[in-house]
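Technical note accompanying the year-one report. For the benefit of new consortium partners, we illustrate the data format agreed upon in the data management plan: each record pairs a sequence with a structure-token string. No post-processing was applied to the example shown here.
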Amino acid sequence: MQSENQIILIDKPAGISSFGVVAKVRKKLTQEFGHKVKVGHTGTLDPFATGLLILLSGKMTKKSNEFLKLDKVYEATLKLGYTSTTGDPEGEITEYDDCEPSMLKNGIPDFSAIESCLANFIGEITQTPPKFSAIKINGQRAYKLARKGRDFEIPSRKVEIYSIEIISYSYPELTIRTHVSSGTYIRTLAEDIGQKLGTGAYLTALRRTKIGKYGVKNAVML
């Protein structure tokens, strides 16, 4: 039997919250060890997102702060030409500007407009986290206040984008891989890219592949 003090790498599926994953793992470990085992996450993933979620159990939960500050790598698919009230598929979708930002040159897609846009986000940038997020405002989660229709502001923050590369592009879908600092919201990055392109954008898919030195290839399915 393994120790109950573990670093647990989970490949989170879509459709479940990070807290839901924690509850399932806690139940499994409690059954295995015959007593309640403390389990916590080290940074959430939205329910629609998939990929690496690091959980800590037992005495390892005391080390959560060491994991919170690690940088991350994501693969994200943006839908251009539309916006979402939440920045993802769960919000109210509105058509924004159905104008493709790249044209064909000699029958070959010209990505220069998109590559030029993405280059603007490399380095230290200022982000305003989404209102539908787990950030606490006066002790309450922002997403709970947003669902109630409350009016509130979330302070901007400095984050760093180390790299962005295009994985694939076929309008209106743009898939990128990005290496970012802790605290970066990919939903916000997608919206800001859409604004810069003049088309609007929201995330249709998001997968976290790395947190610090930990990779999703070493994670277990839930």
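Partners are asked to follow this layout when depositing records. The chain is about 20% helix and 35% strand.
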